[in-house]
Amino acid sequence: MPMDREFGFRVTGSPVILASGHLDGGKDGLTSPAYDYQSMIATLAVRTDQPFQAVVPLTSKQDSPRIRLIQVRDAEMHVMLRGTVTGVSDTGTLQRFADANQVVRDDGPRLRSIGALAAAWYSKPRAELAVRWNQIKLGLKIGQMITDATQGVGQQSIGTPITRIDIDCQEQTTRIATAYYQIDAEGMAAFNRT
After folding, report:
1. Long-range contacts of 134-137 (CB under 8 A, 24+ apart)
2. I want to staple 20 with a disulfide (CB 3.0 to 4.6 A). Which of 33, 48, 144, 145 is the partner?
3. Residue 193 — pLDDT band, cuts 50, 70, 90?
4. Over 70: is that where the pLDDT of 129 sits?
5. Is 59 helix (H, G, I), strand (E, B) or coil?
6. Does 16 map to a domain?
7. Strand arrangement, sheet containing 154-168
8. Residues 138 and 103 reside in one and the same domain
């Protein structure tokens, strides 16, 4: 049972059960001490309130830094300390983790790969575009990426794919539209498990 205000654990039950070597028996003569409270050991798993995180800087031309929090709720890091009791043999001998302190689960590489994918997506400015030409344009394809658009002397970054092409042979016009959706980084995390 965890402690309320300090790091530790509490064992509940009859004090007589925990008094082996200190008492002869219970007051009623029926309860016999079984464990010695001075030699008890416990193997604990401790969860901190600090989330496991990876910070990936965005390399962007934007003036102000942006923060995008992507929650990967099942990402964890487990550390096994040398001497941790991992089991009890058939003869009652404690089995201990003999190696040096060791990380036995590390989701850091997974978090960094999700962060790198999100950084690649969010570091580029994106815009939707709708264009009409007074001529028939051949060679345009759905999914073709439009990187920039020029209007007058200005150039605008677009960074989105063509999602619609309308060709009107009677009016001799071509219209295209681009669109995009924000990536679902949390959804990617669900599929990016090792």
Report:
1. 134/172, 134/173, 135/172, 135/173, 135/174, 136/167, 136/169, 136/172, 136/173, 136/174, 137/167, 137/174
2. 33
3. low
4. yes
5. coil
6. yes
7. 130-133, 173-178, 154-168, 145-151
8. no
Q: With 0-12 CB in 10 A as exposed, 13-18 as middle and 19+ as buried, what is 149? A: middle
Kindly report, residue by residue over 146-160, the tens digit of the pLDDT: 999 988 888 888 989
Output the six-digit token pair for 66: 């942006």
164 and 145 both lie in a single domain: yes
- Structure tokens belonging to residue 128: 């939707």
Task: Give the chain's domain count.
Answer: 3
CB within 8 A of 112, min separation 6: which ones? Answer: 54, 56
* Domain span including residue 82: 48-125
Q: What is the pLDDT of residues 14-71, one digit of tens each?
A: 777 888 887 765 555 556 788 888 888 888 887 777 888 888 777 656 556 667 778 8
Same-domain check for residues 89 and 134? no
Q: How far is CA 28 from CA 8, 25, 35, 73, in A?
A: 32, 8, 18, 51
User: Residue 171 has what pLDDT?
Assistant: 95
Whole-prediction pTM? 0.59
